[in-house]
Amino acid sequence: MKICIVGASGKLGTYMVQHALDRGYEVVGVCRERSVSKLAAYKGRITVIPGATNDRQVIQKAVAGCDGVLTVLVPWGANHYASGTAQAVLDYAQPGARLIFSCGWHITRDGKDVYPQSFKREEKIARWLGRLTRIVDIDDQVEACRRIFASPTRWTVVRGSDLEEGESQGLPVWRKHVGDPILESNMTRRVDYALFMVAALENGELVREAPAIVGCRTPSALAHTAAAGSGYDHSRTGNYLQI
Ligand SMILES: NC(=O)c1ccc[n+]([C@@H]2O[C@H](COP(=O)([O-])OP(=O)(O)OC[C@H]3O[C@@H](n4cnc5c(N)ncnc54)[C@H](OP(=O)(O)O)[C@@H]3O)[C@@H](O)[C@H]2O)c1
């Protein structure tokens, strides 16, 4: 399998590069010119295409011949960076390719997510601050996902909880909607978020889904998997939660 990682030099991106290489995939990475050195550890093992992720020519070149594209969707600046990135991937990925995008719980696909008050407050503040400083444009990430949800491609939008660093704990658990009690702990190890993104490439169950994820060892995940008494497999390549 040949895959492209758009945003390969960031924290989530480098974890995804490692997981993809562990699986034996051929990897093409896209990152800003100034960040190429952040991928020095992978020199000779991956192909790096420098450039802005919303540069359509860069994306066209990077995704050529790829069976899957993993995109770190971040709404930098005030120039439609996230929607430009998503649109380029949707337009140029080869037909039938698996397209996996990252974003946060704040994205909703059908409006059926139920958010804690504190979450809504923080989102409001982030949206206001982002607009004021023009550093981030949360609404552009919303627009990017609107386009993805409307696309006939084989997409998955992985909605991350709050993130923390640390050793892998295994594949996160997921639900269709925020508000499900299993997600209550609102924390995932970044390395496991990356694992979920990479594992989604070969999980047909996630095609055209927007899973909201949480770490499989968080209190809420443990409480609900124990209550269900399921044979949940926490191993690295284990199956997704079935209850
Ligand atoms: N942080 C959280 O708590 C959290 C929670 C839920 C979901 N998420 C989602 O997780 C994904 C990754 O987030 P992350 O926080 O872990 O960050 P990250 O992996 O470090 O990714 C940041 C990305 O943005 C790029 N970038 C940084 N500054 C930029 C700029 N000025 N212009 C263009 N690109 C720039 C970075 O590239 P360079 O290497 O070139 O700097 C990198 O690819 C995002 O989709 C986010 O929505 C994050």
Secondary-structure blueprint of this entry?
Elements: E1 2-6, H1 11-22, E2 26-31, E3 47-50, H2 56-63, E4 68-72, H3 81-92, E5 98-104, H4 117-133, H5 138-150, E6 154-160, E7 163-164, E8 173-175, E9 188-189, H6 190-200, E10 212-214, H7 219-228
Parallel strand pairs: 1-2, 1-4, 2-3, 4-5, 5-6, 7-9
Antiparallel strand pairs: 8-10
Helix pairs in contact: 1-6, 2-3, 3-5
Bound molecules: NADP nicotinamide-adenine-dinucleotide phosphate (NAP).
NADP nicotinamide-adenine-dinucleotide phosphate binds next to helix 1 and strand 5.
Fold and architecture overview:
- With 243 residues, the protein is of the alpha/beta class.
- The chain contains 7 helices and 10 strands.
- The protein has helices spanning 11-22, 56-63, 81-92, 117-133, 138-150, 190-200, 219-228; strands at 2-6, 26-31, 47-50, 68-72, 98-104, 154-160, 163-164, 173-175, 188-189, 212-214.
- The strands form 3 sheets. The chain has a 6-stranded parallel beta sheet with strand order 3-2-1-4-5-6, with helices on both faces.
- It is globular and about 45 Å long.
- Residues 7, 9-13, 31-32, 35, 38, 72-74, 76, 102-104, 160, 162-163, 190 line the site of NADP nicotinamide-adenine-dinucleotide phosphate.
